[in-house]
Amino acid sequence: MTTHYTFHHELIKLNKKVLKMSAMAEDRVRKAADVIRTRDQELIQWLIVSDYEVDEMEMEVEEECLKILALHQPVASDLRFIIMVIKVNSEIERIADIAVNIAMRVQGIANSKWTVPSPYDYTEMADKVIAMLKMSLDALVNRDVKAARQVFLLDDEIDAMRTEAYHRVKDMIRRHPEHPGQLINSYLIGRHLERIGDRATNIAEEVIYLVEGEIVRCP
Amino acid sequence: MELTSPQVGTSTQSTMEGSGFAASQQAGGQSAPRQTVGDPFVANPRMTARDVAVYYGEKCAIRGISIDVGCNEVLAMIGPSGCGKSTFLRCLNRMNDTVPGCRVTGEIRLDEEDIYAPSVDVVPLRARVGMVFQKPNPFPKSIFDNVAYGPKIHGLIRDKADLEEVVETSLSKAGLWEEVKDRLHEPGTGLSGGQQQRLCIARAIAVSPEVILMDEPCSALDPIATAKIEELIAELRTQYSIVIVTHAMQQASRVSQRTAYFHLGDLIEVGPTERIFTNPRHRLTEDYITGRFG
Hints:
The complex is a heterodimer of chains A (219) and B (294).
Chain A: H1 6-38, H2 41-49, H3 51-72, H4 76-111, H5 123-142, H6 145-175, H7 180-212
Helix pairs in contact in A: 1-2, 1-3, 1-4, 1-5, 2-4, 3-4, 4-7, 5-6, 5-7, 6-7
Chain B: H1 20-24, E1 45-56, E2 59-70, E3 74-78, H2 85-91, E4 102-110, E5 113-114, H3 122-128, E6 129-132, H4 143-153, H5 160-173, H6 177-180, H7 193-205, E7 211-215, H8 223-236, E8 241-245, H9 249-255, E9 258-263, E10 266-272, H10 273-278, H11 283-289
Parallel strand pairs in B: 3-8, 3-9, 6-7, 7-8
Antiparallel strand pairs in B: 1-2, 1-4, 4-5, 9-10
């Protein structure tokens, strides 16, 4: 049905903004995954200094939501949409922050004088996290509950990888107790990736709420 | 990620019943009434309506309406103009009897008694099921007489002191006593619109009704007078059943416990107000309350 009201234009505008912000966050996570492997200093710097762009976008989206709530008092799926956006908005902003955290951990490792092979190869884990994030954002774009529920399943795999990384790093710290900083940074990369997975799960939960009106939490 | 913007709102309702506005346009003709989504019945109903239809001459205004009015609840009836909500409201105290060519079928009971039975006298019925209209309509009499009139003609009072007590109690319950107690013998028509509407509510209360019907009681009032009436509705609920027809959906969501959505003569959906306004189950309800048509 065609919509002619300011209110519905506002909703469509807001939806576009959220999608744009999602794309920005996803791009940053991809770049963060790249720097784990390449330690590209330029890209690390870009990730750190450009984070404000996502922060500003987050504030804009939040302001839009508050404005719509105050001026239009949405109900039913429009209300659920606004509530979802408010929650997903902060998840996306945090995901972009975590991409910065990863860049900083990589920088910490790169700056270390002591060089040791990484105790855990994060390539596969990063790929999975990116796939998971993409799946949750696609579910958001397409209002796809089935895809959203698939995201929940991937979260367990990510958690298992984080646990594996933890044991490897712990073992390495035992063998090289003189270099804890670099090794802790290495573990934290796994922890950050895992947190991105958790936040992708949160986004998937919100998609289910939007479509079905049921508040769900991933078990 | 692709930056397309899927339609916000109704397109998300994959689990929703109903097939949208286009299909709705075909209803209201000779097709069978649509089944109501949600549970229209309550455990201890004050009033029950079963398969109620109303015809104005040949034209069917509402059909297949089955719903309960619970005790101590506010039931809000919403829907676009011409959907039949006011027609149905008027069936509940037989106000439609006064409309030439109007025919009501089905069954409506108040405390299990069929209000359309030949033996029923509509005058006491309309005391038990009172009505407040869109436009305040005080009698061209004093404030006191406006309230006293009903108890007098229904023989509900014994003496003058009794009458004065009924008037004071009714005006107090309507939240008007403090404002008018010093000018009870001035004309009711001299009050402000909001006060006049509360006077009409006091008039309805004075005859000890069980149910109060309200047909857009605030649409002629400003926001402050509206807020007072809404507060009053919340208080009155503790003693009466209230059925309110309103075009202001925010009002329905503020004052009612259950909401019924009418569309082209059908009762489309009934449910707890909280659910209707957060997660309606029928596409037509969703489209109406989100302003996508109406």
